[in-house]
Amino acid sequence: MAISLKGDQKISSVPTTKSKALRINLNTDIYGTFSEIGAGQETARNFFRSGAASGTIAKAMSAYDKDFSDAIYGVEDDRRYVTQPRLKKMLGHEIDLIEDRLSRSKHPDKLFFSYANTVTTIDFAKQFKGHGWVGIRFQLDPLEGYNEIILHLRFKETDARLQQETLGVLGVNLIYGAFYLNDNPKELVKSFYDNLSNDQLEIDMINFSGPRFMYVDNRLMSLQLLKNGMTNAVMFGPDGNNLLPAQVLYKKNILALRGSFRPVTKVNMDMFEKSKKLFFAENKVKEDKTQIIFEITLSNLTAEGKINERDFLDRAELLCSLGQNVMITSFQQYFKLVEYFSEFTKERMGLTMGVQNLIQIFDEKYYRNLSGGILEAFGKLFYRDLKVYMYPYHDQASGAYINSENLKVHPRMKELYKFFKHNGKLVNIDDFDKEILDIFSRTVLNMIREGETGWEEMLPEGIADLIKQKRLFGYSRSRVRK
């Protein structure tokens, strides 16, 4: 539930940065610290400049020197400063100081908070635009535990001063949202871009925690970032918590399997296992330095006109139960996905796909927005250290198994297809399971919704039980046909 404001004044639907800071300052219950490393004290500055800051700011500091920072917050194992563990140490340390130094008997109604960021702005050579971690730990009731919102951002602007100002606006939006929009996390996330634009920054990870956010599914919050155009890719792990793609993919070999996974079937897992075996057999690939990703595109999630969040969570629930990292992206075209991976690694990449997906890669209509057309896309796709692992298709009419040897593409694409097939970029998955090749997710989904039996055998072990137990994909015991 959002806090009421003492002496509140009516403001516009999208308040200015100054009015947000002033509203916080005029609320005599909100009181806390600002700790900002790497980009000045831009968030605190907004509160100072708006007026009445003495009612809000207990302390504002910037442990900019690394030795001072280590003396206050401790030394990180990796000796890095712009990290999530560093941010969490900052938040925890400052909250402990508030609790230790301010008497609860003297301030029974105070709602303490600690805001922190650790950021690196654009470098002098302007090669790395910079990124950072931003977070707040806060109370909404003096007798309750602390809530926490943590996010990661990537700067897009090419001027350090502008990046600092952007960070300051984002910080105000975060603090304001934490206290006044906490009862509607979707609107809270959307408000991060109040008085900002997508051209200024990207937010590619967020996690909510604490008593007021016990009902929040962080995977759904991750989806909001994508829906709002705040980022092009989000990732979450088997535990349901969001992950930072740059951190997970950094200098890793990457094997990605794209699908609808609605639901995940035995075919999906056979594709995964067989392509993984081929990928690990590559000389350049080390298993302990490989990241495997199950990827779903936003266009797949919107196949029925709009995103069904329940349907999205159903898919995520199953993939997480299989211990997989899941990535949702806005990259309908494969070359854009590979370009994205290339931001974080130069190691070998692999894409696992079925025949139908490969046919789409050779369809010119997907590249009409590129000046160089399909040739430009293929240059971007195969210029990198990439292999495509192709899972066959069973043509029930002829009984043939379609792979790269007998696949038919458009006549204009024949020579291009031959070139990429013969240079070793396309690898057939030959040891596939013929017994399961005719299983399709859409068939299973229809059977579940219509209450038919027999779909359970089409899914990996344990998945059918989970669908029934949690009533996923519209499953209803009462609808099952006897």
Task: Give the integer mean of the pLDDT values.
Answer: 91
Number of domains: 2
Structural class of the secondary elements? alpha/beta
CATH architecture field of the largest domain: Alpha-Beta Complex
Which regions contain 5 or more consecutive residues with pLDDT less than 50? Answer: 4-12
CATH superfamily of the largest domain: CinA-like
Give an overview of the whole structure.
The chain is of the alpha/beta class and 482 residues long. It folds into two domains: 17-216, Maf protein (Alpha-Beta Complex), CATH 3.90.950.20; 247-436, 3-Layer(aba) Sandwich (Rossmann fold), CATH 3.40.50. Helices cover 36% and strands 19% of the residues. The protein contains 17 helices and 16 strands. The protein has helices at residues 17-26, 42-50, 66-73, 84-101, 160-180, 185-191, 218-227, 245-249, 266-280, 298-301, 309-321, 334-342, 355-361, 373-382, 414-422, 441-450, 463-470, and strands at 30-37, 57-61, 111-120, 131-138, 147-155, 201-209, 233-236, 242-243, 253-258, 290-297, 325-329, 349-354, 386-391, 393-394, 401-402, 426-428. Strands 8-7-11-10-9-12-13-16 form an eight-stranded mixed sheet, with helices on both faces. Strands 2-1-3-4-5-6 form a six-stranded mixed sheet, with helices on both faces. Strands 14-15 form a two-stranded antiparallel ribbon. A hairpin with an 8-residue loop joins strand 4 and strand 5. Helix 1 (17-26) crosses helix 2 (42-50), helix 2 (42-50) packs across helix 5 (160-180) and helix 12 packs parallel to helix 14 (373-382). The two termini are 46 Å apart.
